[in-house]
Amino acid sequence: MRFFEDMAIGQRRDVGSFTFTADSIRTFAAQFDPQRFHLDEEAGRQSLFGGLAASGWHVGSVCMKLMVADGQRLSREAAARGEKVAVWGPSPGFRELRWIKPVLAGDTISFASEVESLRISEKRPEWGIVQARNTGTNQRGEMVYSMLATAFAPRRSPAS
């Protein structure tokens, strides 16, 4: 993870990609979103989606998994260089969650995060507040997922 001072508006971070298989779509849906178009290929084909479609919550969960894994990688790299590791705080929420296009079985989605705004917390000056647009793009270059996330990032120098 990075310290608040190490971020800039417009900074983009590619966090990885994931291929949504029919099995992974059905497994997630059976436990968390058991709608017919997430569970049955024929029902998916007959739906507005035109095929077995991943739950939007599945897409968001994969994005979160990849973001956490990338943050852990950055922390390991910082520690290996002997640098202080930034430990992020919680997220006070998100806005503008959009499932723009269906994610169908076989689609590979690449996820990224781009910083949209930065500000120092008035109540907790040892923290910065980061807003980043998290997106997912399919193998055809079409954006399929977007949300504006907010998180607390530690400040390296709270007095600055």
In short, what is this structure?
This protein is α+β, with helices and mostly antiparallel strands and 160 residues long.
Question: How would you describe this protein?
Answer:
Strand 3 and strand 4 form a beta hairpin. The protein contains four helices and five strands. The protein has a single domain (4-154), classed as Hotdog Thioesterase (Thiol Ester Dehydrase, Chain A), CATH 3.10.129. The radius of gyration is 18 Å and the shape is elongated. It has helices at 22-32, 36-39, 41-46, 56-80; strands at 12-19, 93-99, 108-120, 127-137, 143-154. With 160 residues, it is an alpha+beta fold. A five-stranded antiparallel sheet has the order 1-3-4-5-2, with helices on one face. The two termini are 20 Å apart.
Give the topology.
Elements: E1 12-19, H1 22-32, H2 36-39, H3 41-46, H4 56-80, E2 93-99, E3 108-120, E4 127-137, E5 143-154
Antiparallel strand pairs: 1-3, 2-5, 3-4, 4-5
